[in-house]
Fold:
Amino acid sequence: MPILLLILLVGVLACLWWRRRTTTLTRNCRWRQDRVRGLWRCAFCGAERAGDEAPRDCLRQQ
Structure:
């Protein structure tokens, strides 16, 4: 049983590390899709980005 918990812990930490390395989003980033206009809009900073997939980068600096 302790080995299973250790494996689970390592898996969770690896997943968190991978998510941190592949995105620049912050807790404040809340992307909402506007299908009529065909773009994504951040509810926090108002940044806009065109595309079908949700953005994975924070555009607040730009």
Observations:
- The two ends are 49 Å apart (CA to CA).
- The chain has a mean pLDDT of 85.
- DSSP finds one helix and three strands in the chain.
